[in-house]
Design brief:
alpha+beta; 7-stranded antiparallel β-sheet; 5-stranded antiparallel β-sheet; elongated
């Protein structure tokens, strides 16, 4: 572990006798194995009477150590006493306390800190630091190295480990990173670095990877920093939707764990692969062209075309869809998140996606196929058959596992928007083949409270069906949901009807139609306590 120290300042002779002070210090030091170094300082010039006790405190000179504790005491940490006659030098003297611990170790190896929140707005960063020594001649004429300071550089975690944070090949494949103490730094069950706004709290990786096989075959080797691999049936907790409110479901997946130490650091990276995966692979040719020119969502950086309109207070194009790419779609996720996009970069994306150039410094190759494949959806979304829904459906979209998101009407989205982490996406992903309906939530694009209808899309080749490749969804207002219920169930016009999800959260309730209503996170027990009681007693809700 790290060296620990106490800095003790005195301005003169003690008020108590030396034996009493040293006995009290020994009593406090014993639980820590006498391993805490005590650095003592006297301030001013009239301190002669205090030099003796301050020197003994620094040396941990105890006369009351029991025979039983002698072995611990013999290996005690020794501090030092230093006078500070000039008060103006107090700060400079105290800040040199680290020289005690560096005096016997002249290693210049780079040390990496654990991630922490940057006070100047960079987000979650870590520091790489190394000591700086100079060669000096001592008073006896021998050469020695003197510590002069520490040089360091701060690096954002996304910059350094973005490929780990955004590694994803399907819903059961991911990467994580720990330190050699077993503390999880990056893991899909933890918040992404860009979503953290305070110093992170680190927990042991066994709280996230809970299998006995992991504890036996992986964990010990992560702790000692040696590489290795293991295959076993691993437990997965899949979010039903919003994990905080809707809960999770448990499943088991045959998984491969492969881990390696990051050279020169105390970090270890592990990649987890789904051995049962049949990943969706697009069959569209890389040479085929999209059905129309790609519209990137940054309308502020593009030459606008099409039917421009105001969509909930933001500029939109009604008759075309736009592409938004998640960090997972980029070769360098950190560059995308940290460097503002410009006309030059947006034009480079579009020219590559449309096949006008083969030069590509930004995007993963799979993105091209998905953008071109999904471009044909505009024909469906703008067809005569779909016209009847245009006045009631707020947004229509498709989000792919690989990080491609297509939305109609086209509008600009926040850089931080990532469909892969949205409740509608995870809910559908973990209920493949089913049509899912969300509880009302505040639309990320400014449309107020909406409900999402979504389902998964798989690729079929012959008689085989691959893993989920994308989720398609649409958002509509509470008013439209009310109309839909009345048309399907006319008796709701004279009865109180409501919809809820499997966790008991209301998707629709007549009270939601009030202009002042906040329908987000409203539980059945709040609006219909008697019905809630009956459903719990009947085993429908738990």
């Amino acid at each position: 572990g790290r060296d620990r120290a106490i800095l003790f300042l005195s301005d003169g002779a003690p008020n108590d006798n030396e034996d009493y002070i040293l006995a009290a210090q020994e009593k406090a030091a014993k639980p820590f194995g006498y391993k805490i170094a005590v650095l003592t300082y006297s301030m001013g010039t009239n301190v002669a009477a205090g030099v003796s006790i301050l020197s003994k405190m620094a040396a941990q000179t105890y006369t009351s150590v029991s025979t039983y504790d002698r072995s611990l005491y013999s290996a005690r940490a020794t501090g030092k006493y230093e006078p500070v006659p000039d008060f103006h030098n107090l700060r400079a003297t105290l800040t040199r306390f680290y020289s005690l611990f560096a005096s016997e170790d002249t290693s210049s190896a780079v040390v990496f800190t654990m991630p922490y929140y940057d006070a100047f707005g960079l987000g979650i960063i870590l520091t790489a630091a190394a000591p700086v020594y100079t060669d000096d001649t001592s008073t006896t004429g021998t050469m020695r190295q003197t510590l002069r300071g520490v040089v360091g550089v701060d690096i954002t975690v996304t910059d350094l480990f973005g490929d780990i944070a955004y590694f994803s090949d399907d819903e059961h494949q991911y990467a994580f990173m720990v330190n050699t103490d077993g503390e999880a730094i990056l893991h899909p069950l933890l918040n992404q670095p860009v979503d953290i706004s305070s110093d992170p709290l680190f927990q042991d990786i066994t709280l996230l990877e809970i299998d006995a096989d992991f504890a036996e075959h992986v964990y010990p080797f992560l702790r000692n920093g040696t590489g290795g691999s293991a295959v076993f049936n691993a437990t997965r907790y899949l979010t039903i939707g919003d994990s905080q409110y809707e809960g999770t479901r448990k499943t088991t997946v045959l998984s491969s764990f492969d881990w390696r130490a990051v050279p020169g650091t105390h970090f270890v990276v592990c990649v987890v692969l789904n051995m049962e995966s049949a990943r969706a692979v697009s069959q569209i040719s890389a040479q085929s062209r999209p059905s129309q020119s790609t519209v990137y969502h940054r309308l502020d950086l593009a030459t606008l075309r099409g039917q421009q309109c105001d969509q909930f207070g933001r500029l939109a194009i009604a008759d075309v869809s736009a592409i938004k790419l998640s960090p997972e779609a980029f070769l360098d996720p950190a560059q995308y998140l940290n460097i503002p996009e410009s006309k030059t970069t947006v034009n480079a994306y579009v020219n590559y996606l449309d096949g006008r150039t083969s030069a590509n410094a930004y995007l993963k190759s799979s993105v091209v196929d998905l953008v071109r494949l999904t471009s044909s959806l505009d024909t469906v979304w703008l067809s005569e058959a779909a016209k009847q829904f245009r006045s009631s459906v707020v947004w229509r979209y498709i989000g792919a596992i690989d990080g491609v998101f297509r939305l109609i009407p086209a509008t600009q989205l926040p850089t931080s928007y990532d469909h892969l982490s949205r409740g509608w996406f995870t809910r559908s992903l973990n209920n493949p083949g089913r049509i899912t309906l969300s509880a009302p939530y505040l639309d990320a694009f400014g449309a107020g409270y909406v409900v999402t209808l979504a389902t998964t899309i798989r690729q079929t080749t012959g008689s085989s069906v691959s893993a989920v490749g994308a989720v398609m969804g649409m958002d509509f207002s509470m008013g439209y949901l009310n109309q839909l219920l009345l048309s399907l169930y006319p008796f709701c016009s004279s009865s109180r009807c409501f919809l809820m999800d499997t966790a008991g959260y209301l998707i629709y309730h007549p009270s939601f139609l009030a202009s002042s209503a906040n329908p987000e996170r409203v539980h059945l027990g709040h609006e219909e306590p008697s019905v809630m009681k009956d459903l719990v007693e009947g085993g429908v809700l738990r």
